[in-house]
Structures are given as C-alpha cells and as structure tokens.
User: Which sequence fits this backbone?
DNA sequence: AAGTGGTCTAGACCACGTG
DNA sequence: ACGTGGTCTAGACCACTTT
C-alpha cells in the first residue's frame, strides 16, 4: 500500500510550522504578508494560503479580517457547568478579560424561545448582546435572554460585568438545573462580523438554558466562540 | 455605513442552498460533479468549490474523499455524561449504528497517559481503536485505554459492542467521576484517513477520563468526531 | 477507460486597513 | 496612498474512484 504523495501545501505547512517555532513567534504576533511568504517559499499566493488555512484549522494561527495572520494564544479553559463569571475564570488563568455590550433591549419572546423556555410568545424579555475579549482578542459573542419577572430593572445595571453575579447578589437568583448544548458550527452574519472573522469561519456554539428551583425559566445564554479559543473541561459525578 | 459587496461565492452558496431545498435532496444523496455545477452556475471550479466549502463549514453538505459531495444527515444527539453505549443512543434516535475495531493491543502506558491517569509509565494497558458509523457514514474514531488490572482478558471479548456495558456487566465496574474535555480541532493523520476526510478537516475532540470509587484510573476515551456529526446535550444539576 | 475531486500556476482586480 | 488580504479567472496535471 503506497502512500499518496505529500502535497506541496502540506509541505509548506510543515515548513511554516518549523519557521514559526524557530523564530519563536509569540502569542498574537503577526506573520509576514502572504506575498512575502509566497516569495520566501517559492510558491504562489493561492498555495501559501492553503498552507496558512491548514494551520488556521489546526489552531496555530488565526486571521483578523483583512489585517493579516497572527499566532493563536493558548486556549482558554472553560467549564460551562460552573457558576463563575467570565471575568473571574479568565483572570484565574492569568489573562485579561474585557466585555463590551453591543446592545441591550427589552423585547418580546419569539416563538423559538417560547418553545424551549416555556414562556408565552410575546412575554417581555431582556435581550443583551455582548462581546468578550481575552487579552484584547475578541473570542466570543453572546446573546443573553433573561426573564424580567425575576429581575426587574436589570437593564439599568451595567451589563459589562457578570450577569450571573448580579442575578445572585442583587436578586438572589440561582439556577437549579441547566440544559447545555454544544456543537461546532460556522460563524455567520452578525456573529462573524462582530468577531472580525470571515463568513463561514469555524466556531463553537454553547447554549445554556437555566431554570430555578420551581422549574421556571431564568435565563438563556447563546455563545458563539472562535473554534481555536477554548477548551471545555467539566468534571461530572463528583459530589462536594 | 455601506455594506461590503456580496461576493460571488456567497451568492452561489445561497443559490446552491435553494437548489438543494427545491430538489429536496435527502440525507447522504450525492450532488452533481463540480464541473457540472460550475457550468450550471456559470462560474469556475475554484469558485464553486469555495461555495461548496462554505456549505460544508455550515454542515449542510459533506465530502467523502475524492468521491464527491453529499447531503449531511441530521446531527446525532450525544450526552457524554451518561453511561449509555453508542449503539443504544443511536438506536434510540432511529438510526443504525455500526462499530468497527481497527486494532486492539496490549501495550505500555506512555508518559502522557501516565500524567493524566496516575499509572506508572510502562504499566500494561489495553488500547482499542475503533470506528463508529451511523447509517453507514463513519462519524468518529475512538481510542480507548483501559486498565487491565480491573478487567483481565478484556481483549479476548468482542470490542464491537459497548465497552462500558461489558465493564459493567462482566467486571462490575462503574465510573465514580469523570473528567471531560471538549474542543474543536483539525482532523489529521490517522484520524483523518480513517474517516475518509481531508487532512485538516474540522472535527470535535471529546475526551473522557474515568475513575472508580477508590479514585483509581478506569478508562480513557479519546473521540474524534466529524464537526457536523453531533450535538452535545447535557443536563446539569438535576438530582434524580 | 472515463470521469472525478485534489492540487497547482500565474496572473488579475477590488475593498479595506493602516500609515 | 499604499499594501494587504479577499476574490476570481482560465487553464493544467495527477491520483484516485467508478464504470
């Protein structure tokens, strides 16, 4: 059984990988331009882009819309089952978090939300859309849908901090159980634009649907992460 | 703020999407050849491939090495925290599972495994490598590392069924807690070849590290899934 | 044997980000 | 204003799958 021949773009991938290692390029550092790379490695831009895309898929480098290629930082560890705010677990890992609220509004429950939350269509609902950074790289955008019946006046508060912390401290709300969904998807439309990535860039979707002790809908969280930004780590079955 | 102009390949994506809908192409059905599509939509193969790749990233279609483009089946729902075998939850969802053992061997604990399991380097360990199908599409490959101290003779058993079921029924072994890791990655090398996808195809990695009541290492499970094949769904915090 | 997808070339134009 | 990445053309050859 003979091996298929090893295509040029994969050879380039290997050489780029080695080159990045020997140059000791560090997190968020920029690579030379594609034209410069294609000259240096004696190939065309199309082929060097294929090699770069390969390394992008592997998570070694990433691109920021029309600005160039950069070294990907280490993945953030994330446990969606814990009740710890973004700012806290980012800080715990030695990085610098930042949150930007892109919009917040009082709106009405649409049919799809009614279906999973049990709220009636048309019921008032808070909707917050935020972007989260780690070390000034935008890693995810997040839609929060919160039941105003449980926390009137929430939108007047600053939403740049942890919503969970606020719910716990100001309104004494805690989730009793959660339904979590996770799957890979392509970042599109608003999410892709907000994260400065191409339409169709690989991402990870995380949804958390939280209910209180009485089984009432508390909050829905829909997160769109860059594919290379996180590593989910959960411990299951341990009773503390 | 004027919109950036909408590139041809995204227009093609939309037209392909519509075309697939109106043709009512069903799961696993093959699309026309790239040359035929590029004629039909009056463009070049490079551009039609960009549009196809977009739909691939979105999970609507997939490719099987050099054979063509096909309609992606519905995602399989999967709860890695439950103790239910692959065959069972696939069947529960109305699909047909199949498992193929690609190899199984008795080997020695390598350093990386020692680090996470607590076993000493060089200790005997079972290693099973399997491929799992749903409706005859290979969705994942899986490495199992099992502590033979707890289940001598396991390799003589058929490994085409649920290993967990076997551990429970034949050896009365149950995990007390588990460390689960999940993140997107690129499928490469052995994993890509075994799943008949390109080097660098998008995938999802799921690792489960299981310990028994005494805190002893039981089993390590490393799964490499196609990115479009599954939706993880977990309920947390509910006490039955 | 024919046709397919995978790879690759050598150009080109454009919109956008950065100086 | 310049250079960048993003897009696109019109070809070509090859390895592999299917007929």
Assistant:
């Amino acid at each position: 059984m003979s091996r298929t021949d090893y295509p040029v773009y994969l050879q380039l991938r290997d050489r780029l990988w080695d080159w990045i290692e020997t140059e000791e390029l560090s997190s968020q550092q920029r690579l030379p331009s594609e034209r410069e790379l294609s000259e240096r490695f004696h190939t065309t831009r199309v082929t060097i882009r294929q090699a770069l895309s390969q390394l992008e898929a592997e998570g070694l480098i990433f691109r920021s819309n029309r600005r160039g290629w950069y070294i990907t930082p280490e993945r953030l560890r994330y446990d969606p089952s814990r009740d710890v705010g973004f700012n806290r677990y980012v800080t715990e890992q030695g990085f610098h978090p930042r949150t930007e609220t892109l919009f917040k509004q009082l709106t009405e429950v649409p049919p799809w939300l009614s279906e999973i939350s049990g709220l009636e269509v048309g019921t008032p609902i808070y909707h917050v859309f935020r972007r989260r950074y780690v070390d000034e790289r935008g890693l995810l955008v997040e839609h929060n849908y919160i039941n105003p019946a449980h926390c009137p006046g929430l939108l007047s508060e600053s939403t740049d901090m942890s919503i969970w912390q606020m719910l716990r401290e100001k309104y004494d709300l805690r989730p009793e159980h959660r339904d979590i969904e996770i799957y890979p998807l392509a970042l599109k439309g608003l999410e892709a634009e907000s994260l400065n990535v191409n339409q169709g860039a690989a991402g990870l979707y995380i949804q958390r649907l939280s209910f209180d002790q009485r089984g009432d809908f508390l909050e829905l969280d829909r997160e769109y992460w860059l594919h290379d930004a996180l590593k989910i780590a959960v411990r299951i079955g341990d009773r503390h």
Q: What stands out?
A: The two ends of chain B are 54 Å apart (CA to CA). The interface with chain A takes residues 10, 53-54, 57-59, 75, 81, 175-186, 188, 199-202, 204, 227-228, 230-238 of chain B (CB under 8 Å). Residues 53 and 152 of chain B are 47 Å apart (CA to CA).
